[in-house]
Amino acid sequence: MFKKILIANRGEIACRVAATARRMAIKTVAVYSDADASAKHVGYCDEAIHIGGSAPKDSYLRWERIIEAAKATGAEAIHPGYGFLSENEEFAQACSDAGLVFIGPPPSAIKAMGLKAESKQLMEKAGVPLVPGYHGSDQNPVLLKKEADRIGYPVLIKASAGGGGKGMRAVEKSEDFDAALASCKREAINSFGDDAVLVEKYAQRPRHIEIQVFGDTHGNYVYLFERDCSVQRRHQKVLEEAPAPGMTEAMRKEMGEAAVAAARAVNYVGAGTVEFIVEQRAEPSAAPGRPKQAGAPSGGSEDTSVPSVGAPPLMKFYFMEMNTRLQVEHPVTEAITGLDLVEWQLLVAAGGKLPLAQDALRINGHAIEARICAETPDNNFLPATGKLHVYDKPACTSFERSDVRVDDGVRQGDAISPFYDSMVAKLIVHGKTREEALARLDEALAQTRIVGLSTNVQFLRYVVRSPSFATANLDTALIPRETAVLFNQELVGLTMAAASAVAQTLLDEKALEGKDPFSRRDGWRSHGVNVRRFEFEFHGEPAKAELTYLHDGALRMAMGDVSGLLVFVKTVQGVDVQFAGRRMKATVYRQGEVAHVFSPVGATQITVIDMLAHAGQGPTEGGRLTAPMPGKVVSFGVKAGDKVSKGQPLAVMEAMKMEHTIAAPADGVVEELLYAPGDQVAEGAELLKIAVAVA
User: Fold this and answer.
1) Residues of the chain with pLDDT > 70: what percent?
2) Can you give 165-207 as a three-state secondary structure string?
3) Would 613 be classed as within a structural domain?
């Protein structure tokens, strides 16, 4: 076994690999960029080497510096994690040339499976069914559009060298193809250095099911069952679970064997994932024993068993791609198998055999992983940056199996920068059944409290409790289908948000009181009653409350037509509030004037306005368009003097490896462009000026 390895990655996955290495008595070397000088993974490893600037191209993608760091520190092997160089065959070959073990598949396997078009051609020769599409090398835009028209809309444009949803666009009609293709190619060249794409038929109501495979240098292969990754936004996974609802033993075996055949075809070694698009029937399944339909493609599967309640029967599967690395969602496989996949990677890379054969592997219970990301779901999942002023997690383990597990690479006080992926943490739960895992996940999400930047924690709770997810009615369109219960939700409400904020304010003031009676802040007076006024802003709307101090020490609060006694007590977690016929346990964090209210039913924000601090402020200037996050200006679609209409695309920005379109907020005329394509801009920077048309 290795004595020392270098981890060529950052954040959560670097910490994850280091945790297993420590348990195996293997020393670890971290690498870090300027932005990550104080990052968690730097201190988590035994040694750390600086490798360059904040941008990935100046650090984590500079494989020659990484190899130099490995040689300088005496590391024997390099673990690439996921992302960055994990699927770069040149890096894998360079490791071998330098006498270092690449903890992953051989370069030939990475190359064979790394390009989507070539891998699909390989699978086609092997008889694995493919989704109809164009996978050729001719990248002439005219030809690509012609092929899309031939296939029939909707189609999916995908970067051939891509992954993680980058360089991917769904196109509904022919006239939208050219713009989508150009955007895909820009994103692909920036993320992968290759703008080649393929075009495929966009399947209706598909499931995204992947098979975890493992191979060793002795010719042994196994599949560690499946993961359902159907719940996605922007073609990126949101929730992953194992086993897949509705999966039968017969189809599991067929898909597993197909995945192993794919791995065996390229002499694969180590951990890999074969991803499939799976069709499902909307109608009830036929009776067991019904013959397979004529014309079903070779290698596909038509399920003839009745699946679990709520999950439509799985029908046919088609090869999509193979990820030649460890997946982000590997902990759900660990949860149901009881195995440590990083340990297996290290054992295999050191020349050992797979610890178990296929017939020794078993599924135990159900696991679900939620990706907690810095983003704003109600604003098209716009990535967010900022500091983790508060980062509270549920009772959990980290990097090891348990009922509740949180894997992360950040700590309270750390900043989420625009240079890297927006994922903050992975929350993994395990239960005896899917229902138990769902309940455990919702409770754990309720106990996850983050202040300082926008996250998707509440959105994940809405998904978990949505009718489709709760009943396992899954497909990749679940999020747009459940829009009514996923976006712009407010479960706490104005009255309880205000009551919680007021109660916490009074508790904070009480804590400042001394023994001097004149330091009391309870509004006591010898005659009459004291009335205190609060002004709020809640979802952009103003609100007011009057708090009356009664002679018996009670408090009465009135908000518009709602009034009643305000009763509250301090708790370990925060405050227990009763008002207007409702009771709620809340944890309230103040960040300036904003009160962040967390409760078992949900979370919200309410601004408690300090009127003195806002004295003299006037209305904000109109006609300005600002950068919603730090990033780079990719292009402008307008010039000075152009007339624009509300909703018209004006500019494209890139941040966190994704493109984002800036649209006109109202009709008007462009007065001035304040930046040029390629410029880096800060969050809030004014990009262009518009003279807004007066109605």
Assistant:
1) 90
2) CCCEEEECCHHHHHHHHHHHHHHHHHHHCCCCEEEEECCCCCE
3) no
Phi first, then psi: give them for residue 519, nearest 5 degrees: -90, 0
In a domain, 431, yes or no: yes
Other CB atoms within a 10 A radius of the CB of residue 613 amount to 9
Q: Residues 178-181: contacts with CB within 8 Å, 24+ apart?
A: 178/141, 178/145, 181/141, 181/144, 181/145, 181/157
Q: β-strand 423-431 against 404-408: which pairing, if any? A: antiparallel
Average pLDDT, the chain: 89
375 and 445 assigned to the same domain: yes
Bridge-based pairing of strands 4-7 and 27-33 is parallel
DSSP tag of 377: G
325 is catalytic: yes
Provide the pairing of β-strand 567-570 with 575-579: antiparallel
Closest CA to 597 of 607, 583, 610: 607
- Examine the domain organization and report whether 194 and 223 are in the same domain: no
CATH of the domain at 9: 3.40.50.20
User: For the chain, what is the domain count?
Assistant: 6
- d(CA 169, CA 165) in angstroms, rounded, equals 9
Residue 618 pLDDT grade (very low, low, confident, very high; cuts 50, 70, 90): very low
pLDDT tens readout for residues 176-218: 999 999 999 999 888 888 899 999 888 778 999 999 999 999 9
Residue 297 has pLDDT above 60, yes or no: no
**Could you count the other beta carbons within 10 Å of the beta carbon of residue 581?**
8
Q: Are residues 469 and 445 in the same domain?
A: yes
Backbone angles phi, psi at 286, to 5 degrees: -70, 170
Catalytic residue among 65, 325, 405, 461: 325
Query: Helices 341-349 and 11-23 meet at what angle, rounded to 10?
Result: 70
Provide the angle, in degrees to the nearest 10, between the axes of the packed helices 434-446 and 457-465. 150
